[in-house]
């Protein structure tokens, strides 16, 4: 066989590995390569590995946030010099084997995004009580036996509302829009932090009823009410916090999930969507002169809490580093 043919055959059977060096991650954290299960067959990285799994995953801002934060931490603590955060595109049917392989490769911690947060619950050997109540995990920490699951989205929401609107969930009337997975996580956090009452608006009555039934054991006497977004009840209180946990606003032509002008004047409006940064709901809030914020701060704070779970470094220390990375990337 000619030498050129042998080389061509070798390149097909043994393609070159993608760069997974610390230098590549730290020099260009916004453009870390999109890896797959195939890249784990001969995993070359010998540092402390972290990663985010999703499908798709190319759009994720997590590698930028975490690698920037790790670079900052390494300046004062050499323990973090060899920590790196990667991204993996993992279809849902590959999740169980990928999680096993990542554990076998020695990965220290993982983040999970769409569509894996609920699927991963049955793949962990231990789950934090708050995550069990939500029914989803977005953060995994390595243990000898397997993965320990957590959910930092609720913490991220509470911290973001405090930072951007100056409001606390405790003792606050909350109007929550939506009845899906994101809404369930937000509802659990509101109840656990002792909101004054929780009002949930959703267009599909069956989904709304199912969520209310699931939440009642966690309410511990906190009033739970549901309503249709186009028919807000007359006894809704003023100075409530409105939280959008629906997908309405992701597309430019989406209508707002509720007509804010029909609600008693809220204390603030928080939209968990961060792209686009100004959704129809937030535009309406701005036009009404209401305090309003998008979900970018929630993204930062849930990420900082995940890094705390893996590293022990307080989330308050790394959140500014992550926020700075996103601001510089805009």
Descriptive account of the structure:
The protein has 330 residues and is an alpha/beta fold. The chain is 38% helix and 16% strand. The protein folds into two domains: 3-151 and 301-329, 3-Layer(aba) Sandwich (Rossmann fold), CATH 3.40.50.10860; 154-294, NAD(P)-binding Rossmann-like Domain (Rossmann fold, 3-Layer(aba) Sandwich), CATH 3.40.50.720. It is built from eleven helices and 13 strands. The strands form two sheets. Strands 1-3-2-4-6-7-5 form a seven-stranded mixed beta sheet. Strands 10-9-8-11-12-13 form a six-stranded parallel beta sheet, with helices on both faces. Helix 3 crosses helix 11 (315-329), helix 6 packs across helix 7 and helix 7 packs parallel to helix 8 (205-219). The chain is globular and about 60 Å long. The termini are far apart. The relative contact order is 0.11.
Descriptive tags:
330 residues; alpha/beta; Rossmann fold; seven-stranded mixed beta sheet; 13 strands
Return the domain count: 2
Strand order of the largest sheet: 1-3-2-4-6-7-5
CATH topology of the largest domain: Rossmann fold
Q: At CATH's second level, what is the architecture of the largest domain?
A: 3-Layer(aba) Sandwich
Query: Structural class, from secondary structure content?
Result: alpha/beta
Total strand segments? 13
Give the termini separation. 53 Å
Low-confidence stretches are 1-17
What do the pLDDT scores average to? 92
